[in-house]
Structure formats: structure tokens, C-alpha cells
């Protein structure tokens, strides 16, 4: 009886151990597999679930949060925030075949609605970023060849604006699934001998411009002085013409007054001669005597 009981006890003990082992293994697998199945997508990311066993991609993009993708799942993540493309010490040639070294920062963002196209063409973000960088470097070299060394020295902003315009259009044309947010040309390094020559040239041009400005100022001053002299001469001429006109007017008035006086005298003598019954000879003789007497101020003697 005891042996049977012992056998039963012994049998139950082995079964319990087996169940415990299974439970332990299950718990262990749960502890291992659950963390492997849960993946986190950060607030600045978008992800796609890729199954490593079936080698298939889930067609639903995953946004921020914790997602259960299973043990065979792998998240292919892309940053949705602005990315910084730092291109340092890029050597290229200017339009006048002078070597220039550029540091450029390109800020860009992916087109998040085209994430599946990005995966199809590039696989992941690292490959996509490498492609964007290559396009940027080629574009910088291409645009740089349209600017001379002097334009780089004096008109860096024009180069930057042209680079933004060309790069934006090119990323669209090659379907890079990204857009340019900003481009900043950080530095432009020209050979020292070229810088020295340009500085000397600029100083010479400034001297020429200063001399030209001084000459223009002198010409303006001379023109103003000439205009003032002409104005003063014209004023003198106007005053002289006015005086001549006044003199002529006064002379005309004097002539008219004298004519009126002589006419009045003539009329008076004629009237007197007519009333006295004398003829024209008497009138003429008397009038002439009167005129002679008036002009000689009483020094004339008649009838001697």
C-alpha cells in the first residue's frame, strides 16, 4: 500500500516538475518575445513594419507610439522633422576656373506621404540621406561654375539664392521625395593670391569711383555757379531794359505833352486872330514872335 502510495506520490511529483518546466519556459519566452514584438515610434518619426520572415511590408504607416509588430517585425523609420545636410570643404571651380572651397548647410524634409516610394527606391533613411547629399554636392558644383571668383567675393547672397532655386527644382525633377527648406552658404574660401588681387582691384575701383564722384561734384558746383551768374546777368539785363523802357516812356510823354502845349497855343492864337479880324499872316507873325520870346526868356527886342 505504501509502495503504491509512494509510486503515486513519485509519479505526481514528476508531472508537477514537467508542468513547472513548461510554465517556466512559457514565461521565459513571454519575457523574451514580448519586448522583441513591441517597438516604439518617436514623435518626430514615421515608420513602416517590415516582416523579416515573409520579407513583406505592411502598407499602413505607423505614427508616434508603441506598436506590436511581432518577433519577426522590424521598423524602418524616417525622421519627419527638418534634416541638416552639412557639406564641408567642397572643392569646385568658378566660372573663371579658380578653385574655391565651400561650406554649405542644406535643410530639407522628407515628403512623409511618399514614405513607401522612398523605401522602394532607397530602402532606408541612411541611403536616402546619402542620395540627397550626392544631389546637393553635384548641384553646388554646377551652380558654382556660373559665378566668377569676384561674384563669390562680393555677391555670395546671389549664389545662395540661385542654389536654393536650382536645388529645389532638381529634387522635384529626380523625384527625391524631399523638399528643400533652406540653404546657407557658410563660407567661401578662395586662394590667398586671388583674394589679394581682388582686394587691390576693389580698392582701385573705389578710388576711381571716388574721383568720379568728386569730378561730378565739381561739375555740379560749376554748373550752379554758371546758373547763378546767368541769373544775375539776366536780372541786370531786365533792370536795364526796364530803365530804357521808362526813359522811352518819359520821352514819349514829354513829346506828347509838348505837342499838346503847342497845339493849345496854336489854337489860342488862331482863335484870337480870327476874333480880331486879322488874317493868317498876322497869326503866323505873332505866333512866331511869341515862340522866340518864350525861348529867349525875355531877352528879345521887337521892332528895332
From TrEMBL:
Top-level taxon: Eukaryota
Key word Mitochondrion present: yes
Keyword RNA-binding belongs to the record: no
Keywords: Membrane, Mitochondrion, Mitochondrion inner membrane, Transmembrane, Transmembrane helix
Annotated Gene3D superfamilies: Band 7 domain
Domain Band: 42-214
Entry's Gene Ontology cellular component terms: mitochondrial inner membrane
One Pfam family cited in the UniProt record for this chain: Band_7
Subcellular location field: Mitochondrion inner membrane
Family: Belongs to the prohibitin family.
Protein name as annotated: Prohibitin
Amino acid at each position: 500500500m505504501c509502495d503504491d502510495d509512494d509510486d503515486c506520490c513519485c509519479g505526481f511529483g514528476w508531472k508537477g516538475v514537467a508542468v513547472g518546466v513548461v510554465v517556466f519556459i512559457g514565461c521565459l519566452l513571454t519575457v523574451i518575445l514580448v519586448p522583441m514584438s513591441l517597438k516604439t515610434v518617436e514623435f518626430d518619426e514615421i515608420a513602416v513594419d517590415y516582416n523579416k520572415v515573409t520579407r513583406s511590408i505592411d502598407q499602413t504607416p505607423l505614427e508616434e507610439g508603441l506598436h506590436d509588430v511581432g518577433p519577426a517585425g522590424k521598423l524602418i523609420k524616417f525622421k519627419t522633422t527638418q534634416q541638416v545636410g552639412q557639406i564641408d570643404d567642397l572643392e569646385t571651380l568658378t566660372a573663371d576656373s579658380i578653385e574655391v572651397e565651400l561650406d554649405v548647410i542644406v535643410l530639407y524634409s522628407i515628403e512623409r506621404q511618399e514614405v513607401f516610394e522612398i523605401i522602394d527606391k532607397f530602402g532606408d533613411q541612411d541611403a536616402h540621406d546619402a542620395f540627397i547629399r550626392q544631389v546637393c554636392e553635384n548641384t553646388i558644383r554646377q551652380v558654382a561654375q556660373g559665378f566668377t571668383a569676384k561674384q563669390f567675393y562680393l555677391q555670395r547672397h546671389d549664389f545662395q539664392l540661385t542654389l536654393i532655386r536650382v536645388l529645389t527644382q532638381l529634387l522635384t525633377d529626380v523625384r527625391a521625395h524631399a523638399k528643400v527648406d533652406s540653404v546657407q552658404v557658410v563660407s567661401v574660401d578662395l586662394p590667398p593670391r586671388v583674394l589679394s588681387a581682388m582686394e587691390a582691384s576693389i580698392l582701385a575701383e573705389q578710388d576711381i569711383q571716388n574721383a568720379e564722384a568728386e569730378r561730378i561734384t565739381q561739375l555740379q558746383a560749376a554748373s550752379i555757379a554758371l546758373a547763378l551768374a546767368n541769373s544775375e546777368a539776366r536780372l541786370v539785363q531786365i533792370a536795364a531794359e526796364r530803365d530804357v523802357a521808362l526813359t522811352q516812356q518819359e520821352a514819349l510823354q514829354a513829346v506828347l505833352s509838348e505837342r499838346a502845349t503847342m497845339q493849345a497855343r496854336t489854337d489860342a492864337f488862331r482863335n484870337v486872330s480870327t476874333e480880331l479880324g486879322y488874317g493868317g499872316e498876322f497869326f503866323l507873325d505873332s505866333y512866331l514872335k511869341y515862340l522866340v520870346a518864350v525861348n529867349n526868356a525875355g531877352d528879345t527886342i521887337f521892332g528895332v
